[in-house]
Structure formats: structure tokens, C-alpha cells
């Protein structure tokens, strides 16, 4: 295998046109350069220079090897720079996964502050459900994942992935403007047994939405008129007067035409957290986690 140090010497001989010139650039003695050149010729198995009484020039093989060697040295220099950037906390790459409603306020606000402080960090964003993206955290493809867990529908992260809780996101009652429940500070879930509901498709076994699980604990089955897994769609249907809904606070943005109020019932909240691998060596990860936790605390203080 060719020695990269000797390839660099050959490149300098090619550039300067002499052993003395290469020695000056590399801060070596001419004899050391001449020795390394001889060793490189032995490694290559061909003559690389033609020596004259007053001159030295590269052979055709020497010129080809010099050019190829410069390409190799450029790649090595680039690799070293990449590694240096990755080892610093103010540059590098960070892959962040998050669920849709975390993308309304929580993640954008944390990213805005983080990117302002670390503008050289390359950010990669992946949206999806926690249970879908968690394996990518385990495999190291995603550095950090913002997750939720319904108190009535818990899930377990993969082995090697730890979840740090940030705050509880309350389920809020969303009703059309003018609905009697919208004028109250808090409503009991069992008071709404006769209402028509709009809810999600649900998960688990049996497949039930959070609303259906909560109503079961209160002793009734809700009258579900429509289903959607998109909070914007659910709010639009509520706004149109087609029913009422339970939606977590992070999922509510446009409240025109609707009213929200708190609702009392069994475990009507979801835990918002952040999942990562404790062994992840990414140097920018701790900084982003700190900004995310700070943003979460601000949201909790201002909204909850």
C-alpha cells in the first residue's frame, strides 16, 4: 500500500520542480525528501523521476501517480475536516424526528433558538408517529425524537432508547362557538354522554380512540359521527357544527369558530417527551435537548 506521506512529498516535487523546493515547503531536509522518494519508487515498483546533472523531472508514471495522489490527499483532508466539524458542538449534523402537532409550536420554537445559536449545524427533520420512528432512534438514524404517550394508551420504547418527559399536554374539549359547554371553565366528561362526537381512528387492541377509552371508564359509549386522524380536519368538522371533540392542546391552532374548555375525566392528557440513545456521541445533541426542554418549560408556563 502506498504511503500517503510519500504521496504528499511527490506532489510537492511535482509542484515545485525540485527536491530542494519540496524540502522547503515540507520543512524537511533534502536528503530526507530524497530518501522518501526512493522508498515510494520501491513501493510503486516503477521509476517516478528522471534525474539529470542539474535537473529532476517526473516520469509519465510519476506524473500520473502525483495527480492521483493529490486526489487522494484532497479526500483525506476533506474527511479530516468533516470529522473535526462533527466533533465540535457548534457544527455537524442533527436528525430530529417529531409528531405532527409538535411541529406547530414546540419543535419550531426550539429549532429557531437552536439554529440562531448554531447556524452551521445541518438539520434534518423527519415527521411521523413515535412508534413508527422509534426504531430509527434505536438504529442511530435519528438522533432525537419528540414523542407523546397517551395516559390511556401507553407504549414502550425500543431497547436502548430512553424517554425523558417534558410536560403533560391536556386534552381539551372543542365545541362550536355558542355551545353551552364553551362558556364553562371546566366540564365533566360524563355530562357529554348525549353529544355527537368527532374522534380519531384509534390504536391498540381493541382499536379505540382516547375518547372511547375515556368514555368507557365513565360508563358510556360515545356517539361517534365522524373520524379523522388530522386535528385540523376534526376542528373544521366541529366548526361546521357536526359534533364536538377532544383534542390535545398542542394540536389546537386555529380556534376561529370554535371554543375550548378544560374537561375533567380519567387521565385526559398525554405525556410529551423526548427519546434518544444515551450512548449517542453526537456532540450537538445535548445542546438541542437543552433548548427543547427550555421551550417545553415556556409552553407549559404560558399555556398550561
Automatic annotation (TrEMBL):
Q: Pinpoint the HTH lysR-type domain residues.
A: 2-59
Highest rank taxon of the organism = Bacteria
Which PROSITE patterns does the record cross-reference, listed alphabetically?
HTH_LYSR
Q: Does the keyword Acyltransferase apply?
A: no
The record's InterPro entries line, in alphabetical order, gives:
ArsR-like_HTH (IPR011991), LysR_HTH_N (IPR000847), LysR_subst-bd (IPR005119), WH-like_DNA-bd_sf (IPR036388), WH_DNA-bd_sf (IPR036390)
Gene3D superfamilies named among the record's database cross-references: Periplasmic binding protein-like II, Winged helix-like DNA-binding domain superfamily/Winged helix DNA-binding domain
- Keywords noted in UniProt: DNA-binding, Transcription, Transcription regulation
One Pfam assignment: LysR_substrate
Similarity-based family: Belongs to the LysR transcriptional regulatory family.
Q: What is this protein called?
A: LysR family transcriptional regulator
Q: Which organism is it from?
A: Catenulispora yoronensis
Amino acid at each position: 500500500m502506498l504511503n500517503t506521506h510519500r504521496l504528499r512529498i511527490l506532489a510537492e516535487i511535482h509542484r515545485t520542480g525540485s527536491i530542494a523546493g519540496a524540502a522547503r515547503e515540507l520543512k524537511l531536509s533534502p536528503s530526507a525528501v530524497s530518501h522518501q522518494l526512493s522508498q515510494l519508487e520501491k513501493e510503486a515498483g516503477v521509476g517516478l523521476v528522471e534525474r539529470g546533472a542539474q535537473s529532476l523531472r517526473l516520469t509519465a508514471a510519476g506524473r500520473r501517480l502525483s495527480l492521483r495522489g493529490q486526489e487522494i490527499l484532497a479526500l483525506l483532508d476533506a474527511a479530516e475536516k468533516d470529522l473535526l466539524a462533527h466533533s465540535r458542538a457548534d457544527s455537524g449534523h442533527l436528525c430530529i424526528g417529531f409528531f405532527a402537532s409538535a411541529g406547530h409550536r414546540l419543535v419550531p420554537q426550539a429549532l429557531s433558538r437552536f439554529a440562531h445559536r448554531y447556524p452551521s449545524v445541518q438539520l434534518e427533520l423527519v415527521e411521523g408517529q413515535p412508534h413508527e420512528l422509534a426504531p430509527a432512534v434505536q438504529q442511530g438514524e435519528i438522533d432525537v425524537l419528540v414523542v407523546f404517550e397517551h395516559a390511556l394508551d401507553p407504549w414502550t420504547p425500543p431497547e436502548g432508547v430512553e424517554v425523558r418527559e417534558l410536560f403533560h399536554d391536556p386534552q381539551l374539549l372543542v365545541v362550536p362557538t355558542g355551545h353551552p359547554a364553551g362558556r364553562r371553565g371546566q366540564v365533566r366528561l360524563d355530562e357529554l354522554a348525549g353529544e355527537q362526537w368527532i374522534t380519531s381512528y384509534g390504536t391498540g387492541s381493541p382499536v379505540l380512540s382516547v375518547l372511547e377509552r375515556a368514555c368507557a371508564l365513565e360508563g358510556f359509549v360515545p356517539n361517534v359521527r365522524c373520524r379523522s386522524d388530522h386535528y385540523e380536519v376534526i376542528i373544521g368538522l366541529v366548526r361546521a357544527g357536526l359534533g364536538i371533540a377532544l383534542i390535545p392542546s398542542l394540536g389546537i391552532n386555529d380556534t376561529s369558530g370554535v371554543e375550548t374548555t378544560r374537561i375533567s375525566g380519567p387521565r385526559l392528557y398525554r405525556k410529551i417527551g423526548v427519546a434518544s440513545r444515551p450512548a449517542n456521541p453526537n456532540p450537538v445533541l445535548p445542546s438541542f435537548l437543552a433548548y427543547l426542554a427550555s421551550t417545553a418549560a415556556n409552553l407549559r408556563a404560558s399555556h398550561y
